[in-house]
Amino acid sequence: MPPSQIKYDESLVKKVGFWLTLFLSLKILGYFTISENIALTRVLKVFVRLLTSGGIILLYLNLLRLGFIGSFNYKNLMSPILYLLYLFMGLASLLWTSSFSVTLLQLFMTFETVPFVIIFLLIISMVNHYYPKNKLYISSIFASSIFWIIFIFVVGMYVNPDQFFRLTHGGEVARLGGFMMNPNELGMLAVVGLAGVIQEIYERGIKVKWAAFFVLLLYGLLMTQSRSSLGSFILITGFFILKSDNLKIKFAVAVIGVLVAPVLVNTIILKQGDLQEVLSMTGRIPFWKALLLEGFPREPWLGFGFMRIDYTDYFSSVHTYAARMTHNTFIQVLLNLGIIGFGIVVAQMAATIRAVFISKNIGMVVFFWAIYIPIFINSVTEFGIFGENNFGILFYQFLIFLFVVEYNPKLNSKEKFWQKRLYRSSV
User: Fold this and answer.
1) Is residue 283 exposed (0-12), middle (13-18) or buried (19+ Cβ within 10 Å)?
2) Residue 84 class from Cβ within 10 Å (0-12 exposed, 13-18 middle, 19+ buried)?
3) How far apart are CA 340 and CA 128, in angstroms?
């Protein structure tokens, strides 16, 4: 059946939406430490990664057999080109890295998600072109995928609190995440899910499903007691409130904010009333100072190698604690790939933001900012979008290709020729 004769099948859209949600959930779960056995965890992560990548490819090939053809917007290629340049510089750093095995592993995990993201977005753009009355919404897929992960953790903290909680501050503070995931990273994940829910409510109205998702995701976020994630949630909420024309919603949110603020300050922001901890960003500021004054001058131009911050596994200083990552994605890049790599990253982020401002797809622009806010804030204090492999990198890759992988009805004859060749070869 040629592409021009595709029959309308509403059930197909639902099936594709289900598989995309499942694949994204599994891909995110692939970043979790499922078992305390390191060897078993590595095997499970590799298996899940291969499973999701293989699954998304098979789904794409099945759509091609049905006659679906996708395309790209070549006007926004600068952002992904610069991102690939950053990754290829990381690949080149194998020549001078302080740990060949660590750099190679980190590169593999980061490269591996790029085709997954491209095919994922390509499937959405293809389906939405052929089924414009029953579209797939990426905000809905993100919200649903993340909901089930946070749901598992919320249930787990009641069923098995020893495994799902992480004790901090001398055992006085219990944070959702356990050994499976850093609470700050889990909090960021919950905020990304909340962003998807809020966009669905904002653009398509409130439903019981989204209200239930919102409550559980917010509860999960609060249980992580992540200050940075809470701050990003407040910013996202403010972002959507400013875009809303409903004065009642604005007033209600303002009242709720005033009532809840004292509780949040005492229980999450000022854990055990420790203001000094907040002012030093949990000791990060002295650590960053030591990294910039002591570590960076040792290898200023090319760095220590992709995901390396010293000649040994841990950076240590007499002025601060020892760690193997910087807790700031931008300082991480500076130490990993030096001034040259940092320059590429700055240019890449600028190109990504440019693609947002020139886009005419309002829904995608809103989605971009809703996801960008939490992963950027997380990048200031944790692994981040250019740090050691985490699902924040996966989300940033989605944002990079968001305005590149989109259906272009004005394909020239040469592009149509190659797309027909691709279609015939898949039948």
Assistant:
1) middle
2) middle
3) 40
What pairing do the DSSP bridges indicate for beta strands 320-323 and 315-317?
A: antiparallel
Query: Each residue of 253-286: pLDDT tens digit?
Result: 666 666 666 656 565 555 555 555 555 567 788 8
Q: Contact at 8 Å (CB) between 220 and 247?
A: no
Structure tokens, 227: 């200050």
CA-based R_g, the chain, Å:
22
pLDDT in tens, 203-225: 988 899 999 999 999 999 999 98
Q: How far apart are CA 8 and CA 138, in angstroms?
A: 21
CA distance 277 to 205: 41
Which tokens in the block code for residue 45? Answer: 């992560």
* Number of Cβ within a 10 Å radius of residue 236: 23
What is the Cα–Cα distance from 156 to 163, expressed in whole angstroms? Answer: 8
Q: What is the 3-state secondary structure (H, E, C) of the chain?
A: CCHHHCCCCHHHHHHHHHHHHHHHHHHHHCCCCCCCCHHHHHHHHHHHHHHHHHHHHHHHHHHHHCCCCCCCCHHHCHHHHHHHHHHHHHHHHHHCCCCHHHHHHHHHHHHHHHHHHHHHHHHHHHHHHHCCCCCCCHHHHHHHHHHHHHHHHHHHHHHCHHHHEEEECCCCEEEECCCCCCHHHHHHHHHHHHHHHHHHHHHHCCCHHHHHHHHHHHHHHHHHCCHHHHHHHHHHHHHHHHHCCCHHHHHHHHHHHHHHHHHHHHHHHCHHHCHHHHHCCCCHHHHHHHHHHHHHHHCCCCCCCCCCCCCCCCEEECCEEEECCCCCHHHHHHHHHHHHHHHHHHHHHHHHHHHHHHCCCHHHHHHHHHHHHHHHHHHHHCCCCCCCCCHHHHHHHHHHHCCCCCCCCCCCHHHHHHHHHHHHHHC
Q: What are phi and psi of 8, to 5 degrees?
A: -75, 130
pTM of the model: 0.92
